[in-house]
Amino acid sequence: MPDNPTRPDPAVAPAALGLTSEVRADGISAAEIIATVATIVWLGLAALFLLVPAPASPLPSTLTATPALGTVAGLSGLIVTLIAVVVPVALIWVAAAAARSARIMRHESRRLQAVVEQMRQAWLTDRQARGAVAQGATVERKLAEIAQSARAPEVPLGSFATSRDARARGGGLTRGVTRPGDDQPSLALGTTADELTPPLITSDLIRALNFPDTEQDAAGFAALRRALRDRRARQLVQASQDVLTLLSQDGIYMDDLTPDRARPEIWRRFATGERGRAVAALGGVRDRSCLALTMGRMRQDTIFRDAAHHFLRLFDRMLTGFEPEASDEDIARLAETRTARAFMLIGRVTGAFD
User: Fold this and answer.
1) 169 to each of 156, 163, 166, 174, 191, how far by Cα in Å?
2) Could you give the CA distance from residue 87 to residue 105 in angstroms, rounded to a whole number?
3) Concatenated DSSP letters for 187-223?
4) Three-class secondary structure of residue 177 per DSSP
5) What phi and psi, each to the nearest 5 degrees, are found at residue 56?
6) DSSP category for residue 179
7) Exposed, middle or buried by CB within 10 Å (0-12, 13-18, 19+), for 38?
């Protein structure tokens, strides 16, 4: 029994995929029937022509006087007769053989297409089952832990305010309180915890949007923690993680995509609201299988469609605020992140660049 139930057994996979089957002719084809009929008709006409005696005509006196010349003329006539009979028959069967070869090639092409499609489906199934399990599970777990801890970034601030209030006996800051309908605690002066968080620097935002590469990527996790303390960045990171997870279920991974690079000024035009041909280069994903799978998922999966549109809105909003202060180098680095590649893929599928 194979170790991985989703991977085809090497001993039986070739036969299952049709790799060992021979190309079978589908019996006698129409071309061969036509060639047979044409051959019979032609041979019948030739036999009729040869067997029916021609009207007698006196030979010239020179031929009758020279037996050698009569022999040569008879031999030449026999050769011409054979050529007239055999050559058309040979041409008929050469055409029939060519038609048979073309039919076999069409059959083989269809069979190979079916085999390639079966192999692709088997590869996608196997990749979805494995999907970098050892590394991906650890990274996903750490991302979940970071996201969980980021939901309450105000806890240290609340503790500090409480202890400060106890020592100051009512002076300065008081305990953090929560407004009705607000998940962010506020201080006595109405300042929320998000407003006390240091602004997120550009390098941390870009690094967080690319996500950690491995579980040993300490710099990536540190940048992600800092990004999750910023409310808007946290929303985009979580939306991007949702979309990337859903895409991975179809075997679509951003590391496998190599989209055409768009110049920073094109990103700036999109950030300022331009659409159409001026920003069409942002849809630089050319992988047809990824585009087809994403398009099918958008049409059939309402959860994925809602997540994708939510992600596009958040990325667009982030880009609008990011562009004025970002350099061309910053925009180029942003375009290389996994989040930006997902934006390019989904944006092309949904027509966001039209």
Assistant:
1) 20, 10, 5, 9, 20
2) 27
3) -TTS-BHHHHSPPPPHHHHHHHHH--SSTT-HHHHHH
4) strand
5) -65, 140
6) -
7) middle
Q: Which two tokens stand for residue 226?
A: 């800092």
Q: Where does the chain have alpha helices with state H? A: 13-17, 30-51, 61-65, 67-130, 133-150, 155-168, 193-196, 202-210, 218-228, 231-248, 264-271, 288-300, 302-322, 328-335, 338-350
Spell out the residues 6+ positions from residue 235 whose beta carbon is closer than 8 angstroms to its own.
314
N-terminal to C-terminal alpha carbon distance within the chain: 52
Domain boundaries, the chain: 30-51+68-109, 153-197, 199-354
Cα-based distances in Å from 108 to 19, 29, 120: 11, 16, 18
The two structure tokens encoding residue 335: 């375009």
> Which tokens go with 118?
């079966």
Element housing 44 (H / E): helix 30-51
Nearest to 146 by CA among 247, 215, 199: 215
Give the pLDDT confidence of 1-30 residue by residue, as tens digits.
444 443 444 444 444 444 444 444 456 778
Task: For the chain, list the strands marked E by DSSP.
Answer: 177-178, 185-186
Q: How much is the pTM?
A: 0.51
Residue whose pair of structure tokens reads 């407004």 in the numeric block: 179
Spatial separation of the C-alpha atoms in residues 349 and 295, rounded to whole Å: 6
Query: How many angstroms separate the CA atoms of 127 and 141, rounded?
Result: 20
- Which of 168-172, 214-218, 338-342, 348-352 has the weakest average pLDDT? 168-172
Q: CA 344 to CA 285: how far, in whole Å?
A: 7
